[in-house]
Amino acid sequence: MGDAEHVTGVGRGVVVALAMLLVGTLAQCAQPMGDASAPQGASGSSGAAPGLPISSPAGPSAPPVATTLAAVQQRTVAPRPAPRPTPTTPAKPRPALWEVARVVDGDTIHVTRGGDLVKVRLIGIDSPERDECGFDASAASLRRIIGGREVRLLTGARTSQDQYGRLLRYVEVAGTDVGLAQIKSGYAVARFDSRDGYGGHTREAEYIAADRASPDRGWLCATPVPVRPQADWPLAGDEHPCPREQPIKGNESSMIAHSPGQQSYLVTNPEQCFATLSDAVAAGFRPAKR
After folding, report:
1. Which one of 171, 189, 213 terminates a domain?
2. Which intervals of the chain are annotated as region Disordered (predicted)?
3. Side-chain half-sphere of 118: how many Cα atoms within 13 Å?
């Protein structure tokens, strides 16, 4: 019996030891696990409040979204403003076209448009009148320039009409100044006094220059009127007399020669004086009409 009891006591000791080992293992398993994300060596009794996220390691933080957008806007190059359109002056409408209905003489025409008939006196020129030497040739010259064509009427005189009710206009055909063309042909002369109601005009200088450079065909066929000797000289009322031996007054402004007894003789201030009207015509002057 002694050996059996000894074996039994040893077995009990082994069982007790195993039981204690099991209890210790269970006790360890029952303890709460530490935060696996805590850095190695950190104490389990950290002062961080439970439930709050643990701060990441110190380092530069990303800027707020609003700050980033503002910086991008500052760096963005502002677009150049669109160029302003240059103001332009609207083109003036071109004068209407008129059909030539009749050539009256070398400086007067009748035109029609839309059933309206208008009489037009060309500004700045003068041509022989009916029954005067050169009338037919001057009218024929104007017909060659504008016959069967359409013309444009342009203003330029100080008044719109003359004392006969005719429109005072420059006349152009296909861009050509008809009055200037008549002067250059030699069948009209520059006219810029006030007897036709317009006085000076805007193309006066050009017309005068053309007149002086052109042959005067319109009045070359005229027969000079002989000047009768005057008993009293100078004539009464003549403020600008010529010598008795040279009574013909030549007005260089109009290139008209005035004889004693004519309408404008006493008031004409001559630049040249001639013995005969033939001498004046030879010098480029034309006889006064009245």
Report:
1. 213
2. 32-94
3. 21
Asked if residue 51 belongs to a domain, the reply is no
Token duo for residue 13: 């000791």
Asked if residue 132 is part of any domain, the answer here is: yes
Kindly state whether residues 103 and 198 are assigned to the same domain.
yes
This prediction's pTM: 0.52
pLDDT per position as a tens digit, 47-99: 444 444 444 445 555 555 555 555 555 555 566 777 777 766 666 677 899 99
Could you report the per-residue pLDDT of 224-254, keeping only the tens digit for each? 555 555 668 888 889 899 998 999 999 988 7
Alpha carbons 44 and 42: distance in angstroms, whole number? 7
Q: What does the longest C-alpha to C-alpha distance in the chain come to? A: 207
Give yes or no: residues 236 and 194 share one domain. Answer: no
Residue type, 241: P
Q: Are strands 108-113 and 116-122 parallel, antiparallel or unpaired?
A: antiparallel
Q: Which two tokens stand for residue 271?
A: 């630049």
Q: What is the CATH number of the domain that holds 124?
A: 2.40.50.90
